[in-house]
Amino acid sequence: MTSTKKSDDPFTAHRRLLFGTAYQLLGSVADAEDVLQDAWLAWNKADRSDVAHPRAYLVRTVTNLALNRLTSARATRESYVGPWLPEPLLTEPDRAAEETEMADTVSTAMLVVLETLAPIERAVFVLREVFGFSYGEIAGFVDRPEASVRQVAHRARQHVQARRPRFDDDPERRRELTERFMAAASGGDINAVMELLAPDVTAWSDGGGKVTAARRPLHGPDHVARWLLGTLAKPVTAGVALEAVTVNGELAVMAVLGGQPIGVVTYDLLDGRIQNLRFQVNPDKLAGLRP
Questions:
Q1: Domain extents for the chain?
Q2: How far does CA 122 lie from the centroid of its chain?
Q3: Which ranges carry the SnoaL-like domain (predicted)?
Q4: Considering only CA atoms, which of 78, 77, 96, 74 is closest in space to residue 16?
Q5: pLDDT above 50 for 268
Q6: Higher model confidence: residue 145 or residue 71?
Q7: Residues 183-206: pLDDT tens digits?
Q8: Which of 89, 98, 268, 289 is the most buried (most CB within 10 A)?
Q9: What is the dotted CATH code of the domain comprising 6-163?
Q10: Please, how many CA atoms are within 13 Å of residue 275, restricted to the half-sphere of its CB?
């Protein structure tokens, strides 16, 4: 008699897809892991003889669990302290990266845009545009007629296209500016930092009320540079090291203290300068930065 290998279990085989779906619907590593745990429990209680297509069954389960969590999370975020930003996720070459299945990794900027969609719009957009499911498959996942799903997809696509930030995608240029940014910030050189920032730069920082962060967006090179260097000059960040890492498929800057990540900066580049910066320093949202 042959034993069933763990890798033969459909849940294990499709875990990357399931995690990627939950993460992109929720923008949270912790919530995505919770959804997968609930989905795993549901899968183990299910009558497998009634499941003709395990992959579709599991995606449907994860999608609906994530939609339920997303709806409740939106109410909670209304009382969130300061700007809310998605949880960053390292995408090379660590454990978290192995648990995502994305042809084109959704950037932090895109996750921010997805936050402006209604839950059902976000689900349809992610399932269609990121994972390539057919309208018929998605209709089955979300219990809606296919015609309705097509309308939702069209509306979501228009919404995303209108809000998707423009940026440069030259990897060498990004690497060069990342190195210059780290050198200028580490050296406390405000003029060098300001030279890298676009005239209309905006910075958001998410501390969640747990650590010091700007409660409102910062605008302009002077304000952004002074706030950044002021934060790095505080006694609590003495000894911090800045490292270049890939987060959500893009080069970013991670702050490390005592061997542990304490924050990450993601950003957009446009016309050779940094257009938008997003500082994630909420300690509850840094799990995806740990290998």
A1: 6-163, 171-289
A2: 13
A3: 179-255
A4: 96
A5: yes
A6: 145
A7: 999 999 999 999 999 999 999 999
A8: 89
A9: 1.20.140.160
A10: 12
CA distances (Å), origin 268, targets 29, 40, 166, 228, 265: 22, 37, 8, 17, 10
Query: What whole-number distance in Å separates Cα of residue 279 and Cα of residue 134?
Result: 36
- Whole-structure pTM value: 0.85
Query: Helix, strand, or coil here: 241?
Result: strand
* Cβ-based burial of 20 (10 A; exposed 0-12, middle 13-18, buried ≥19): buried
Percent of the chain with pLDDT over 90: 71
With H, G, I as helix, E, B as strand and everything else as coil, classify residue 238.
coil
And the tokens for 220?
A: 């302009």
Mean pLDDT of 209-233: 93
Give the separation between CA 134 and CA 112, rounded to whole angstroms: 25
Q: How much is the CA Rg of the chain, to the nearest whole Å?
A: 20
Q: Which of the 8 DSSP states describes residue 167?
A: -
Give 199: exposed, middle or buried? Use CB within 10 Å, 0-12, 13-18, 19+: exposed
Yes or no: say if 198 and 275 are a contact pair by the CB < 8 Å rule. Answer: yes
148 is written with which tokens?
A: 């309705």
β-partners of residue 263 are: 255
Please give the C-alpha separations between residue 231 and each of 49, 81, 191, 228, in angstroms, as whole numbers: 58, 18, 16, 5
Strands 197-206 and 260-270: unpaired
Using a 10 angstrom Cβ sphere, with 0-12 exposed, 13-18 middle and 19 or more buried, the burial of residue 226 is: middle
Nearest CA among 275, 264, 104 for reference residue 196: 275
What is the CA 222 to chain-centroid distance, rounded?
28
Cβ(203)–Cβ(211) below 8 Å = no
Residue 138 predicted with pLDDT over 50: yes
